[in-house]
Amino acid sequence: MTRSERKSYTLREIAERFGGEVVGDSAARVTQVATLENARPDTVTFLANERYLPQLKATRAGVVILGTALREATELPRLVCANPYAYFARVSGLLNPSRQPNSGTHVTAVVDGSAMIAADAEIGPLAVVGRNARIGAGCIIGAGCVIGDNAVLGAGVRLHANVTIYEECVIGDRVILHSGAVIGADGFGIAMADERWIKIPQIGRVVVGNDVEIGANTTVDRGAIDDTVIEDGVKLDNQIQVAHNVRIGAHTAIAACAGIAGSAKIGRYCSIGGASGIAGHLTIADHVEISAHTIITKSIDKPGTYTGAYPFEPNRNWRRNAAQLRHLSDLADRLRALEKKLAALERSES
Amino acid sequence: MTRSERKSYTLREIAERFGGEVVGDSAARVTQVATLENARPDTVTFLANERYLPQLKATRAGVVILGTALREATELPRLVCANPYAYFARVSGLLNPSRQPNSGTHVTAVVDGSAMIAADAEIGPLAVVGRNARIGAGCIIGAGCVIGDNAVLGAGVRLHANVTIYEECVIGDRVILHSGAVIGADGFGIAMADERWIKIPQIGRVVVGNDVEIGANTTVDRGAIDDTVIEDGVKLDNQIQVAHNVRIGAHTAIAACAGIAGSAKIGRYCSIGGASGIAGHLTIADHVEISAHTIITKSIDKPGTYTGAYPFEPNRNWRRNAAQLRHLSDLADRLRALEKKLAALERSES
Amino acid sequence: MTRSERKSYTLREIAERFGGEVVGDSAARVTQVATLENARPDTVTFLANERYLPQLKATRAGVVILGTALREATELPRLVCANPYAYFARVSGLLNPSRQPNSGTHVTAVVDGSAMIAADAEIGPLAVVGRNARIGAGCIIGAGCVIGDNAVLGAGVRLHANVTIYEECVIGDRVILHSGAVIGADGFGIAMADERWIKIPQIGRVVVGNDVEIGANTTVDRGAIDDTVIEDGVKLDNQIQVAHNVRIGAHTAIAACAGIAGSAKIGRYCSIGGASGIAGHLTIADHVEISAHTIITKSIDKPGTYTGAYPFEPNRNWRRNAAQLRHLSDLADRLRALEKKLAALERSES
Fold first, then answer.
1. pLDDT digits (tens, 9 = 90+) for C161-172
2. C181 and C198 in contact (C-beta within 8 Å)?
3. Nearest Cβ partner of B188 from C237, C310, C319?
4. Residue C164: which of A85, A179, A292 has the nearest Cβ?
5. What is the ipTM of this complex?
């Protein structure tokens, strides 16, 4: 959308739509969001963290969204609310509506005659849609996407370019898949016999709920026998690996480069840090937060934050300390021996 | 394949094919595999781990595959054998035969006139095959795949959609490549001069042996000068990075998200855990097992299991302990000093 | 390029071009580079590390590039210089010139009528170029690439097959992007309200400088509001994740599988190891080196090498030591208590 086509909204119109308290000139009009640093008079910015108060002083924004505690932190026209970050998200969504489908199938797309494509769906150039696949109302299928036989996409799904969905997989409504995502590749199922690996056919599907977003180059493997399941509202960042038979509970968010091993069950509303890992067959309770670069090797049955990252240091210090780490058990033994000796000495003293 | 087209097999027919002892009704007939929990009377399931004995009691399966020690653990018709997991793999392969090629080149594929394509190979829609590339008998090339100039694919190779194979690379027989895999991109070869990086042309190839499977979005870089080599029977999960000039020994299996740095040589029958790493120029012996989230920084010359993952804890505990980790060397020094003092004290006592 | 078409160069011609001292037969003629082990008389090899002196003795190379200190380490015709690895890089570039574009747009490519394509650019088969996109002089766009609306590519850009560039992104001159790379996918911006995630539109771009190389399946997210920036000369290996609003300083090199979290600012001439991570909103100074498998959780304001990888051990040893790690803080407390007791004892002795 070019600037000239942009809709604009006054502070009053925004408050009418999303609530909150207007302070200052309610006729202030904005066309776009901006950061505190780069805001201009026709943009709206936000403050969610007191750390950025100095930037607030200097901002040239036309409107600021901020929390009740900071109501008087600026003289600019402002919207005061309980959750300024979420409020900002809504305003940005209003100012940057997602693209609507240009109904129809591009002449270069290859759509099997048996596929069912909603009339208002958009199938982009050089996309491929397999036999008996179903594409719901309002879907946008990007250039170069490949949708396997019998796959089902709900309504309002957005596939960016070059997404691959294997046969039989099911995608809910309003799901967003980014480029390079692969849904439904075979899980890593092999059995050793006579010194050779035998492949175990992966006959489950991937079933993705509604309102899920899956990042670029993330992979979600199909189930070995039963399905791999991504529940409603799950948000997966880029380059995440979800192995076969995993279940990810609703509204859980996982940061980039995390890996979830086979058959792990993750609860609802979890928050899983970047490059972390969950070992296979574990169960993680609801509302668990896992720190970045942490590997979880046992099930977790209580909410809370769990961490296991090696603290970094200048290499020279690390070398000294890490070397000792290999003797930690001996060190503990020696400490225990010392404690005993000292106790004996104290007894002999008294 | 729809249910109605499925072949079915009796327990007796299965035993005739794969061996093992039939106990109970040998005419029991199955059409598909299932998990213990979701099995129905026309499915076959398996028990490879005593942990699942409770599920065995409740299963509705028509046939169970299980080990000799558990021969009497169920009254259902059963197949008793030494390695039930591998047996199950074979039975599932029988019930779920891999797709056969629909010979021919899709009208939308772009195949260079100089490429040699086996008569019975299938080239999918919108695939690209470069100059002088060779595609062996029975290959299936998925939609959107790009096969570079002079690349060679053996017989029975299966490329799922959107695989990329760079020029000159060689792929053996019966290799499976999953979507998003990239074979033969340039290795990371750069040299610094005058404060600028100079690119080192990567002129080696990737040579992949027979019966290799490579997961979704896994990358295998071409050699800098000589080749990168993946030997026969190697199994690579998703999102693995194999750098230039690596050699991976036959029948080694690597779990998702692992990274193998340049020129590392990995032995045969190794098992490498998820998100682990092997530093460059190392040599790893045969039959080495590396745990998940472990980085190997020295060569390993003996079989065995090697681990180096930070144990996770509730964040509060981790913070306390990790802080001490930075003082571990001092702590060891202080312990040594205490030992000396105490020894001196003991001497003065005696 | 087939062998028969290869240009050859004499040692003298090479020295005239790139400098250095010729020792031995300056008419020695080479057509290709080789490793010490596999060199033949018509190839040139190099020695950058004394560790490989034994291989030098046995090499059959026609010409060797080596450092001044090793001038007499071989009797073969040789080029003696200060930085043999960089010199080798230049010679290999001479012998292996990068492919020139075959000007023109492949008949199967889908190029929007509003796109501006330089006359000598090559647009490969089944590539897609969006509305108002601009492709500079001498670009090579590989098969299956998708370039979004309003994206801008400078001169001499090389996209290997199946690269995706989202709308609005800007790529500098002489940039190389490998297959599966995704530039400009949405950053991971979500805000929780009423127990649901709200998506924050990602309206920034990715801006990539000149002479950047980005590896296979690497992802660089567009900025949330402002841009994500990759400065000139940055080299990114495969499967790296660069989150929204990151800035990577000029000439920094990052090894495979690293992850840079949102809004991190990385300096110039940094070297970041494989599978390492930089937490969000940090600032890393110029000339910082980060070891593999290390997560950086605080800003670094001084050059140097920083490390935080858990040292691996045979699993049995690891189990013993890692178990103690969970008691490290207690262990330190006990040590302190012992020190106090012993001091008291010493006082009472004296």
1. 999 999 999 999
2. no
3. C237
4. A179
5. 0.97
